[in-house]
Amino acid sequence: MTGQFITVEGIEGVGKTTNIEFIHKWLLAAGKDVVVTREPGGTPLGEAIRGLLLDPQYTGMDSTCELQLMFAARAEHLTRVIRPALEKGQWVLCDRFTDATYAYQGGGRGIDTGIIARLETLVQGKFRPDITLLLDVPVEVGLARASKRGDLDRFEQEKVEFFERVRQAYLDMARQYTARYRVIDASQPLEQVQQQLELVLQSVC
User: What is the pTM of this model?
Assistant: First the structure.
């Protein structure tokens, strides 16, 4: 028996941390054995790579370097955490996955999505999430929320236009992959956002 792989996506300020905690508690209450993880990160090596990717010291990092670091962390994450957990029948709840690479490095940075797709195949084969929850808010709303968290990381310091491209890439994927995407209006009050999430979870459990 294998578990389910649920990914949570969205731009900065959509409420991923709060809502992943809600999803985690909901799944536990439903009797699921859940592993919560994140990208980039999830392993000691992945967290070290995350530090490089988010550090404002490396603003101006070559976009191809950035892309390859993302997939390097992902390869380790899949091998050490995600695949073993699913094979044991656990559910894996992941804060971002490869769709974030298409959104940020493809949409945001303008990297050819064909290049991203080739790396995706190299690292993942045909492995994809079972369900992707896209928490969606207008860019100005998300960035206003993110600005209240304190110091901004390397990505959070990008311009509004960058995040507009990222958000559009996410919405394009949601239209393309309707079987696994669920778009959640995260601009609503938290209680209503979590009601939307609960309806999706009830449909997959």
Answer: 0.95
